[in-house]
Every structure is written in C-alpha cells, then in structure tokens.
Amino acid sequence: MIYLDHAATTPIRDAVFEAMLPYLRERFGNASEPHAHGRAARAGLDTARASVASALGAGADDVVFTGSGTEADNLAVAGRLAGGGRVVASAIEHPAVRERLLAYAASGGDVAWAPVTGDGLVDVAVLESLVQSDDALVCVMGANNVTGVVQPIAEVAAICQARRVPLHVDAVQAATALALDVAALGDRATVAIAAHKLGGPKGVGALVGRGVRTLAPTVYGGGQERGIRPGTEDVAGAVGLATALATLPNGERRAALRDRLESRLALPVAGANAPRLPGHACLLTGLRGDTLVRLLDDAGFSVAASSACAAGDAAPSHVLAAMGIDDRAARGALRVTVGVATTEHEVDRFLAAFADVHARLAAAARAVG
Amino acid sequence: MIDLALAGAIDRPDGDGRAGGGRCDDAVRFTVAIDDGRIVAIRFGADACPSTTAAAAWLATAASGVTLLDAARLGTAAAQAVVGGARACVEVAVDALHAAIGDAFCRGASVPGDGRLAVAMSGGVDSAVALVEAHAAGLAPVGVTLALWIDPLAPDASRACCAPDAVRRARDACHALGVPHVGLDLRDAFRERVVDPFIAAYAAGATPNPCTRCNGDFRLHELVAFADRIGARRLRTGHYARVDELDGVAVIGRGVDETKDQSYMLARVPADVVARLDLPLAGRTKADTRAVAVAHGLAAAGVAESQEVCFLGGGQLRPFLRRAGVRASPGAVEDERGRRLGGHDGSIGFTPGQRRGVGVSADEPLYVLRTDVARNAVVVAPRSRLGTRQVWLDEVRLSVPQERYDAVLRHRAAPISATLHDGMLTLERDAFAVAPGQTAALYAGDLVVGSAMIASAPIG
Fold first, then answer.
1. The domain defined by B116-312 carries CATH number 3.40.50.620
2. Which residues of B are catalytic?
3. What are phi and psi of B251, to 5 degrees?
4. ipTM of the complex, rounded to two decimals
C-alpha cells in the first residue's frame, strides 16, 4: 500500500516517537504536581512549550496546548466571540473554523465571508473592504487543505493591524511546510497547529500567539494552560508536537515529487497559478473523484477526493465552489499529497496505476455520455 | 474491489438500459448481446459514485453468460450484500441492468424452455400474494411489470401502479423469493394506444373508460406476448375475477368479493387471451388477500390502493386534459329546448348523470343529460329524463352470443336484462345516465360473454 494522502494525516516519524516514549512510561507524572514525578513531566512540558514558541516566533506564555487542531480553531473563534461582534472570514476555511462560524451565524452572529480568486487565493482587496475597525475577528487560513494554496497572510495581517482587529490563522495545513512568524501577525493574533499533520501524534494541537492572553476559556477545570484550556496536560503529546515541528524537513523534496506527478499527468490542477504547499496536488480529473479514490484504493494507493456524491454529506466542496469550479468538475477533484518519506519510485508507481484506472473509468463514463 | 474489465458499451446491442439522473446525478447504462435467450456479452457504463459503480461492475460480471431470466433474478439486496454501499446507490445500477433486460425482451428476445408461469406484478398487494402462492406451489413464476406512461406533472405520480417505485417494489417482492422479475418499458406504446384515445374521446364529448380499453386491447396482450417469449403457458394476475368456460369458450366470470369484482374491467379481453389467464384471487375477498400478505410478511401488505385512472397519478382530470391540449372555453348550460339556464367554464369532462358542478338552480334537481361538443353546451334535465331503454353500441365483441344479456353499462352498475340487434341494445327497464365512451359489459349470469363501447343513448 502506498500512502499519498499526507494532507489528511501523516505517519509518526521515528525521532518524534522516540522523544515521546519516556513521557508515556517513566516520566508519566502529572505535570501540575510538585513531587519528583510531577517535576519530571513538567520539565518535559516546559521544554516542549519553549520549543513550539521558538519555532513559531512566539513567547512561551503564548502557547496553549489543545487536544487537536480543530479544538485550537474552536478555542480561537469561540474564545474571541464570547462577547459577540462581527467576523470576517475567508470563504474557504476548514470546517473547524467554518462550522463554528456557521453555528455563530445561525445563533444570530454577524459573519461576512471574503471571496477567493479563481486560483483559490483570498481576495485581499475585497477582504480589506469588508474588515471594519470594530470587528471582533478575522479568520484566514494559512494554506488551504483542499488545494494547498498558500494564503497572503502578511497582507491580511497588515489590514487587521491597521484596523486593530484580532486575526486567527488556521495553520494546521500551512505548518506542514511554511515557516510561521506569529509575532508579525499582531498583538491579538492566534495561530492553530496540529501535530499529526507534521509527522507527530494525533490528539494534540496548539493555539499560539499573544492573542491567547485575551481569549475567554470555553471549558473550565483545574486551571492548566493558564486556565484557557484546562485538563491534565498531555506531556507526551506536547513533546511529540514540539519535536515534529522542530525536526520537519523543508519542502524541496516534496515539491520536486509533486511537480513530477503533475507534469506527467497533464491534468488541470486547482490553484495551479497560486503559491501552493510543496507536497500538494489537487487534480481535476474530469471523472468522479470518489470513484477514483475507491479504484486506486483497490490498486493499493491511498489518495483523497474533495467532494463526495451530490446527495451525500460532503457535497460538493465549498472550497472548489468558492473558486468558481462547477459542481461537475469539483466532483472530479482528486487530492494527491506526498509526504517527507515519499519516494520517486512510489510516485512513478502511482502514475502507472492512475493512468490505467483513469483510462478504464473514462471508458465507463463515455459509455453513458 | 471494483472490476472495470466489462466497462464500455456494445455496438448495436440486443438490449440497452439506462438509469439514474436523480438527486445524486449518477448515471449507469448496460448494453447486452443476446443469443438464444442467453447474455453472451455485457458491458456497463457508469458516471457514478463508488457504490453505484461497484454495483454496476458486479452486476455485469454476475449477468455475464447467464440467461435473461437468471440475470432478471439479480436484485438490489444481492448486489448490496456483495458491494455494500447505500441502497439508493446500488439501486441505480440494478435499475439500469433491468432496463437492459426489459429492452431485450421488448426487442423480441425469448428464452427457451417451458413450464414457467408469468405473473403480472403491479407492486400492490394482490399481485404480490398471487406471486407468493405461485412460488410456494413450485410453479416456476417469473414476475413481469409494465412501466406505463404517467402524467409527469401529476401530484402523486409515484403512487400509480406502474410508477418507478411500484416497479421496484414488484421487483423486490420477486427477488425476495429468488424469482426473476422483468420490467417492460411500454410508456410510449401505452401513451399512443390508451392515453391518446382517452384524450380524444373526451375532446369528442364522451366519458371514456381507459381501463377496459387498456386491459382489452393493450396490457394483457403485451403480458401474454411476454409469457410466450419465456415459454409460459399461462399469465397469472391479481384480479378479483375468475376464468370459466361456456360452450367451449374461455370467459371471464365475476369474483367472489362483490365489492372488488373486476370482471367489468376485464370485459373487453378477447377469448384467446382469457384462455391464457390464471386468476387465483377469484375465490377470495380483499381481506383474505391482505391476511395472506401479512402472514407472508409482504411489504406490499400496507401499500395504498392504486387509483382508477393510473396515468392521472392522483391528479385532476380537467387540468390534465387542458395540458393535453383539449380546449375548454366557457359556454352555456341549457335545458333540452336550448334555453340557457347558466354557464360552465368548459363542457369537457361533464358526464351524463352528473349533478355536482352544474351550477344551475331550478325547482327540481337537474342532471347532465348530455354534452353537445359542437355547440360547447351542457344539456341538463330532471332525473326522470335521464332514463333510456335503447343504447347504440360500437366495437361489439361477442365471445358467446346469447338471446338475452345482463348488460352492465358502467363500473359497478346493476345489470339490466337486454337484447342486442344490429348494434342496438334494448333494455328491459330504464338505465339512467348512460354515458357515451363507457364500456357495456354483456353478461350471461355472472359470466362475461361480450362487450362493446357505448356510442350514444337515444333519449325517450
């Protein structure tokens, strides 16, 4: 089985696993206890926090560990909107942000959605016209999970800072390849990340940035994580996240493999003209993406569709729709994402299998045409 | 595992079926080549979700090399058990395969062999029970359902007995027993041979009975023709009527359940077709049938009765006729001397004996006597004027001619003793509100020995 769905999740890397192990065994203590067991765990947590802060250009006090990227996004949005207020968000946010905002809007909250260009980039000029100085929050993701298109966060941050509006960046996908400088995003900015996209474990994420200081807690408990996200600390998870972030290879290899894949396939690519994450290819196959996923799975390859059947829950991708891609083309979208351990041989085997499957499914589709 | 080896289409196929295009926008097509009733080549096309595509691929493999009737045993439950997925997804592929099988039969394919029993399935409870009992008795039943044209704008098209849901229900009832089911798409022929004459009759001011015409001239002929193609000597249906014999001629007789008796509806079925019928519900009441259905756990046990004019799909007659291009313009309601008593907004659809909708107040209640299409007038009269003893008949069919007949001039009307000479039916007592276009069923006791279409009823 060849895995080409690294945007969904990644295998844990050996270095990360090794770093975590002591905190699952001998250093298992509760980091909030003053005894030796607690102190040993606390030391690991503090080191992990400092490491994450350093990797993202934040202070150690500005790192809140969470149970997932989704939780970090929810905390950033709900913690900021506890007192109400208007929100401007990109039309292509991940469900972790989008669904939270849709719920906010359904309960009477004011949400404005900023459109994206045909290349999948948030339209900065429109965003600028939408953001008002008394807005409660702006949400623009760092890079899109469907297309891999990297968003113009520096420009968005400048708009937010000029209007003194807090910015939340869902960087769960972006952190797989981009260097992020949270300090540059403003005093009330937050950034969400998740370990499992980076070769770390599932079940741990973080919300990072000076903005965490002014968030209202969304759960209550024993005061851990400065009361913003209480609950006995997952030290092994925090160490895993810190290690994964600190040891992440750069994207050059992944970009080379992705370029090889796209050039050999010669299919339209969503967001082709925009800056994209290095391992990310969103192919517009002209066939049914969900059916290709199944056929490729049969052939031993794990890839992802962006949209399921029109009658199903995931239909059709709001991201591709926002880019002006029609439903039919969107249903053909196939997301192939290479990882840090993917080899050229694996990509070539995928290319051969894809050509075969695509040709046979095209014959089936032609017969009903 | 989705095996795409059979993906594609056969050039100049012997059967070609498509399905899909609903909410999910999936589309599936099967093409088959037939030799001596056997599927010697099959290809499928699919632009569909994984479940539908997987079902289509599996069905193509399963139907490869088998007879049309064995392929007709392949159903939704079997496909779903193999490929998984949602029922609605799998059903699209099953619909397409069955459309191809039905198309092959419509193009004249036949399956060698004999000893089978064709069972006409409507999707309702009566035919479901007729099937179950045939299966239990080891009669090698083969279910067949005709897909007939239904007004696409009807409010309730899915309740009509030949709507897609009903066809699927009939198919599922067969497949639950491992019985083959064939759906024949006769929508165009039905439209031409039953619906268009119905519309034309109304336009000419008559009150047609499409069911007697359909049974007598279309539906049962097609079903018997199908029985011939599968080597079935008999066609079983769920009608409440019986097959009897008089002077060596096969005739329809009344069923035991007087409230459900359908012998009138079968009155125009010719003797050669009657001779092929097997009507197991003859001695039953509807309550008996429902009890059997419940005892067998049949899904059809709770299905609502289908309405009388199936292709209206629960819709109203007048809007349907308007959509069909029958012009309705305001005209006069007048008495027999031509004096205007009031107005109507279209004379079409008024039937003799009708009182509702006449909209005229008078000293005594007035009923429709006749409509005068040429003058767009509805003629009304007191009830005493509606009686007649002479009725002109068209299209007379006599299977066993008699001296006297018990004439039934509309569905559920009481029989009146009568004689027939040169197309003129002379009644022993007055018949009220005789409507041109209705069927005159001619009984000898409780046996139907002839029939005709009522042309007109001379007054007085």
1. yes
2. 214, 310
3. -135, 160
4. 0.87
How far apart CA B447 and CA B426 sit, in angstroms, is 20
Cβ–Cβ gap B53/A308 under 8 Å: no
| pLDDT value of position B156 | 67
Query: To the nearest whole number, what is the mean pLDDT of chain B?
Result: 91
Buried b vs exposed e over A7-33: b needs ≥16 C-beta within 10 Å? bebbebbeebbebbebbeeebebebee
CATH, domain range B386-456: 2.40.30.10
pLDDT band at B163 (very low <50, low <70, confident <90, very high): low
pLDDT value of residue B348: 80
| CATH class of the domain defined by B4-106 | alpha beta
For range B284-296, the mean pLDDT? 90
CATH of domain A250-368: 3.90.1150.10
B49 vs A contacts (CB less than 8 Å)? 288, 290-291, 308-309, 312
Instruction: Calculate how close chain A gets to B41, using CA atoms only, in Å.
Output: 15
Give pLDDT, residue B306.
62
Asked whether the beta carbons of residue B47 and residue A364 sit closer than 8 angstroms, the reply is: yes
CA distance B369 to A321: 64
Task: List the domain boundaries for chain B.
Answer: 4-106, 116-312, 328-384, 386-456
pLDDT single digits (tens) B234-283: 999 999 999 999 999 999 999 888 888 999 999 999 999 999 999 999 98
Side chain identity at B273, as an amino acid letter? Answer: V
Q: Return the CA Rg of chain A.
A: 21
Positions in chain A whose pLDDT score sits under 50: 314
Return d(Cα B418, Cα B439) in angstroms, integer: 15
At B328 the pLDDT is 81
| Among candidates A294, A363, A366 on the partner chain, residue whose Cβ is nearest the Cβ of B50 | A294
| Domain limits, chain A | 14-246, 250-368
Query: Is B427 within 8 Å of B391 (Cβ atoms)?
Result: yes
Strand partners, A246: none
Shortest Cα–Cα distance, A331 to chain B (Å): 10
CATH of region B328-384: 2.30.30.280
Q: Which CATH number fits domain A14-246: 3.40.50.12780, 3.65.10.10, 3.40.640.10, 3.40.1190.20?
A: 3.40.640.10
Selected residue of B1, B2, B24 to mutate for chain A interface (largest A Cβ count, 10 A): B2
Interface residues on B facing A, Cβ-Cβ cutoff 8 A: 1-2, 4, 7-9, 18, 20, 23-29, 31, 43-50, 53-54, 56, 88-89
- At residue B329, the pLDDT reads 85
Measured in angstroms, the CA of B93 and the nearest CA of chain A are apart by 12
